[in-house]
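hi support,

uploading two proteins for the ticket. first:
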Amino acid sequence: MNLGALQDVKKPNDWIARGFTPLPTNILQSDGNWEAYLPVVEFQNNGGYDRYACATYSYLNPLEILYLRLTGKEINFSDRFLAKASGTTKSGNYMYKVAETARKIGLLLESQYPDVNTDWDDYYKDIPEELYTEALKFLDEWDLYHEWVEDTNEAIREALREAPLQVYVRFASGDGILNPVGRRQHFVTLYAMTDAYEIFDHYTQSRKRYSLDYKFDSILKP
């Protein structure tokens, strides 16, 4: 089962939270729980086809959460724009590549480049050049950064006080606390730690819970 997640290879100069990073600690949510700011649910497999864009959905969802927390206003970024601009294929994409693309070229709103319930070719057709110019305007007001987080409960809990996290999982669904085994193939948003990892997903089931024993391996904080 391929949901569009490609394994990142961390590079020596990548920023690491509370390690090799120039970013200051910025605690926005002291309890580390972002449930009150969750964005609208959008599914990558809506309309009868899979966009294989979990690297994009799981990156933009935390940004939408942060935007609401910082401004008091809801926002919906265009997944379609960033998925195409970052080079998503039917094999998927890397979380770091998506984040780096957004940092360099900016973002569009969903209303500026909306999703389509047609097919893969239409969704990933070439983006008009004027929309790239429009996306850069976002960077006039906002700076985008990202850094890796160590895969320990303590590091995750601390990072969640600053932002929701993008994490690498084995897809699972159902009620109760999940602890799937096998190769990871999906990126999702981690928005809280309670007696489990609280997950916001964009494939079939939007809310789910993973065991605190689960190892994500790759964790990115926007």
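and the second one:
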Amino acid sequence: MGIGGATARRLAQDGARVLVADVDDQAAARNVQTIRDAGGTGESQHVDVGTADGVRGMVERAIELWGRLDIVVNNAYSGTMHGDAVELSEEHWDRAMDVGLKAMFRAAKYAVPQMRKTGGGSLINLSSVHGLLVAPGWLAYETVKTAVIGLTRQLAADYGPDGIRVNAICPGHIVTERIKPQWDAHPAGLRFFEEQYPLRRCGTPMDIANAIAFLCSSEASFITGQALVVDGGMTLQLQENLGVRQGRYVQEHPETWFPY
């Protein structure tokens, strides 16, 4: 679903043979069916990327199906996003690290040897604007997304000589299937969010999928080790000016609803 689902469909549209690896079997199957209905090639596999066996099995399955591996998109995140160091349990912290960060280390461990056999490939790691700027009470999420950028740079330096490019994407607020019902119920809240963006809209999963497809393509053959910000310009703004503008917006729109 969300960014992962859109990315699978977008890469399949470009001709990639896509293995959709997910803990949600039904969502993965629906996505694969959509890919096939559009004339693409896709398979699904139940995978928990928070485990070594899950990631290793994902790579092995792709090789078993198609004999090679050219692209890996690391998109999964699991764990409690909210909570500071006092509030967050060690269990939730560990799960966030396993799925959001260690899975990317494991993906490189198992994918790189396969990519070396065919002369290169592309690894895409999903970070966030939360990897560049922080919000109070999001300790695990901010830590993971910040670390993803450092991991991406290191992997790019290590495997560039093998023709393997590694880049990260930093999305802004993306209206996915999971969050859309909230905004449908509170359209004034969505309008408030949209006002924070220079483009005056939030992102869609396909906005991120398009950026990922570009970084995986030959048109990006000289781009590696980068954290591409895809956020409608949200992070380029001076905070004090944004605060003044948002204050005026709330005064003019008393129906504004705040999600946090």
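thanks. also noticed: The chain is about 50% helix and 15% strand.
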